[in-house]
Design brief:
The protein is of the alpha+beta class and about 110 residues long. The protein has 2 domains: about 40 residues; about 55 residues, SH3 type barrels. The chain is built from 3 helices and 5 strands; from the N terminus they run ααβββββα. A 5-stranded antiparallel beta sheet has the order 4-3-2-1-5.
């Protein structure tokens, strides 16, 4: 019993440097993960929101379903697209647009 008490009293105290060397690699991994994954994802979301805000009549867009059409009318949350070859008009959600292909004026040049 006395021997176990002596062992407890003489146990080496952990130094702050060992704590730092254990935590520092984890903090560095989290920081690298943040810069490689989350920052580009936030930048892409910001660009997507900006693109959706600036949609105008005459632009050719691609929807998430793969439909390519020209914007005929812009409402608050919806767009009316003219789809070739039959000039079919479709009403789609503004959020369904994934990219802008170009305008009719640019494609004629």
């Amino acid at each position: 019993m006395l021997y176990s008490l002596l062992l407890l009293q003489t146990a080496p105290a952990s130094s702050p440097s060992s704590f730092l060397s254990g935590v520092l690699p984890i903090v560095l991994m989290i920081a690298i993960f943040y810069f490689l994954v989350f920052m580009p994802m936030r930048r892409q979301q910001k660009n997507q929101k900006e693109m959706l805000k600036t949609l105008q009549n005459g632009q050719t867009v691609v929807t998430s379903g793969g439909i390519i059409g020209t914007i005929v009318a812009v409402n608050d949350d919806t767009l009316v697209l003219r789809v070739k070859p039959d000039n079919l008009k479709l009403q789609v959600s503004r959020a369904a647009v994934t990219s802008v292909v170009g305008t009719e004026d640019q494609s004629k040049k």
